Fold this protein.
Amino acid sequence: MLSKKGLMSALKLLPEHIIQKLEVLPEEKISQIREIRLRTGRPPTLTCVEGAEKIPDCPEVTKEDIAETAARAFRNSIHSSTDRLCAGYVTYENGCRVGLSGTACRENGKIVSIKQISSLCIRIPREIIGCSEDIFQSCLSERPASLLICGAPSSGKTTYLRDLTRLCGGRYRTALIDERGELAGISFGIPTNDVGLLTDIFDDYPRKEAIETAVRAMSPQMIVCDEIGSAEDVQTLGYAIRSGVSLIATCHCGDLEDLANKPNISELIKTQIFDYAVLLENCKVKQMRVLREEKCSGL
């Protein structure tokens, strides 16, 4: 189900003539929208459950359309948001994430800015309450455990992670490391998404500093973070586990067998950081695997 909050946030970003074309779509079609994509010189498209398609009767996207949408996404301060610009994304209200591509400006081999933005991908956040209930009951209901959620882009990882945070935060002290602001959708210090009564949110923190601060200051039983895979993650997540904290994290992969080909992820698995791994496809569990029999045998 599409989050109405997320859809309303996305509509705030768009030029009026595109909004008008979206508003006349059938309710069934609107409920399937996952992304709205604008590409200069081409008609805007929707990424839906069944694939990509044009927005009917919508003219080609202009440079002005891109500039207007980007300015709103960056709240009219695009040039003072260099770090987000160079990272290729910005998070708008309610966890609505806007990705971008264009021409990189480099100095000494490092990207220092992006000019001539040519494509925007507005990802509609989905809050599907209860979608992860089966995973929670199987892996986490009796005691904290560590879980790796895997899947290709747009497979539902963030949606499941958000719901698992809600469930864990209803039972355990949980620290949510929300680096991009997608999960809790913080607005003026208040989460716009339900992430659980016992959840403490580290919004826009770098992951390493957030996890270290959470362990030292908030005594969590669970830590939740999105899209791991760096060499730094091996050390940081290892520190959390050695401190007695369980983890829920996501990573990109098309199959659980692919994890062995990801050096840093495979290192985490070899050191028995995770108890379980789950593979998602089209926002459904395709495969589940026990990674650490000793801890899981009592569940």
Remarks:
- The mean pLDDT is 91.
- The domain at 133-296 is CATH 3.40.50.300 (Rossmann fold).
- The radius of gyration is 20 Å.
